[in-house]
Amino acid sequence: MGSGPRAAVVGSANVDLVVRCERLPRPGETVLGGDVARRAGGKGANQAAAAARLGARTTLVASFGEDEAGDWLAGQVVQRGVDLAPVARSTRPTGTAFIAVDDDGENQIVVAAGANLDLDASGVDLDGYDVVLAQLEVPDAVVADVAARTGRLVLNVAPSRALDADLLARCAVVIANEGEAAALDLAALAHCVVTLGARGAVHYRFGVEVARAAAPVVRAVDAVGAGDVFCAAYAIRYALGEADDRALAYASVAGALATLAPGAQGALPTDEEVRSWLEPDS
Ligand code: RIB
Question: Using CA positions, which residue lies closest to atom 8 of ligand 1?
């Protein structure tokens, strides 16, 4: 485990079943793909693994099933240097994501949330963490409970759904992609970071742009989980008290580097790797 800031990630853990195909199917269409790969995933587990890789002392608060998939996935998370909070296992199947990735690196994902729906984080002490990171693959009640218990919540509003305005207002930072941001009232948010994929990211304060970062040009292989790495990187820089523009630039590089290998956790960058892109001559 790293010696950096303390991060708690409250969120999902999924087994990702991934198939590559030449192009994604249209509704009602069948396409043929390659061999299926089983990978560790889930927005919570991805963000926790990315935070640990970047040097944060990271705890994942997630619900795994009592099945073989839950054992395997929990083991994968621990192998990546993440502590698991003591949360009861669920009798539902471990969360599973069905992912198709095409030759351009575009993807489609359907998540069977399973055990994630039983997550109860209320018994986990969130005091003492420099940042708490959460997403929306767990029940609203979990997110509301976490938002009520910490003033240091970085909330990734993915996958998008309508949220209580008071809950959003309690977040230290809200992170959304362009589609998710369309459902938000940016003017009501003190800090909202909108990711733009290969075009980088923008930071808004009450709807006014205060920082913008370009993403480095890379040869992307697979963008699954790149947004999760961005969120983890941004949350760590927030925890360290870094200036908005520098945090945004750091997270944009981390997110881009995450696309360089297959799998949501296949190309998690280290702090040194991100810095070498930000300061190539140092
Ligand atoms: O953000 C990528 C993740 O979304 C995948 O790992 C999948 O499990 C879904 O949760």
Answer: 42
